[in-house]
């Protein structure tokens, strides 16, 4: 879960895009509060740039609140790829983080919805109980950051129940798992840089490979039925949603990741240019 959380939220850095068409650009910058049992333990920021059918995202996370007293964990990740209808087709993903005085690194090359090449540090230690990872598990899979970008087929569907009608097959470099979404309700939120409707999905987590089934946290997450993800639409014309709030049970209390501020900017590119 440490890898997943570090990949979903983090340091706000806009990537460089070279634009050569009249496509519209949507940019989102977000700051997220991360708390456990009501106590702030971290802060993350999210950057997403949509240029036509292409996307580029960067994230990171660092301790905050009482988290600065006992945690030295921090990290960041970035991903790029393409949107095809309601599908995300990543091209590359990198993640680097430090936790408990250990460094973690992932470099994925992806294509046609599959993991083509993976470089991971450190490697898991051998274990007789670990579910073996095979090439089959890397087909029809996406990285954790790209999985947080939720496209729909049309703008008219951006707040529809169908937003939650999907199963996300995620590969983080160490493990392969499924995140299945199911519609719960639609809410109206305000006061955090975004005012409007959000789609609330129930979340079911299923381990697929790379896990050790006997581990307590694996059993707890697989059995959890109170996980939720809230999604907010990007801008006024985009057909893409991003996480507004995520709630996950842990052994020390409910982990809550919630937007503290969201800033959305739209612009129309009328000439070839480079944005930094």
From TrEMBL:
InterPro entries, per database record: DUF3108
Signal peptide: 1-23
Superkingdom of source: Bacteria
Keyword Signal: yes
Pfam families registered for this protein in UniProt: DUF3108
Keywords from the UniProt entry: Signal
Identification of the protein by name: DUF3108 domain-containing protein
UniProt organism field: Pseudovibrio exalbescens
């Amino acid at each position: 879960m440490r890898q997943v959380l570090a990949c979903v939220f983090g340091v706000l850095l806009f990537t460089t895009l070279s634009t050569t068409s009249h496509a519209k650009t949507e940019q989102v910058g977000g700051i997220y509060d991360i708390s456990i049992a009501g106590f702030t333990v971290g802060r993350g920021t999210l950057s997403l740039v949509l240029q036509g059918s292409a996307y580029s995202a960067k994230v990171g996370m660092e301790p905050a609140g009482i988290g600065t007293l006992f945690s030295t964990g921090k990290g960041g990740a970035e991903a790029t790829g393409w949107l095809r209808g309601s599908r995300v087709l990543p091209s590359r993903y990198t993640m680097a983080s430090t936790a408990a005085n250990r460094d973690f690194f992932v470099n994925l090359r992806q294509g046609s919805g599959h993991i083509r090449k993976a470089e991971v540090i450190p490697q898991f230690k051998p274990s007789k109980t670990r579910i073996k990872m095979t090439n089959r598990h890397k087909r029809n899979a996406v990285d954790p950051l790209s999985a947080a970008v939720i496209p729909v087929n049309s703008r008219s569907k951006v707040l529809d129940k169908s937003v939650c009608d999907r199963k996300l097959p995620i590969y983080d470099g160490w493990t392969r798992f499924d995140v299945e979404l199911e519609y719960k309700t639609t809410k109206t939120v305000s006061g955090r840089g975004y005012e409007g409707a959000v789609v609330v999905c129930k979340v079911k987590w299923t381990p697929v490979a790379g896990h050790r089934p006997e581990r307590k946290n694996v059993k707890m997450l697989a059995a959890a039925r109170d996980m939720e993800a809230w999604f907010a639409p990007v801008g006024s014309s985009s057909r893409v949603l991003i996480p507004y709030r995520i709630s996950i049970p842990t052994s020390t209390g409910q982990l809550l990741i919630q937007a503290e501020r969201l800033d959305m900017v739209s612009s129309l590119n009328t000439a070839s240019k480079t944005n930094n």
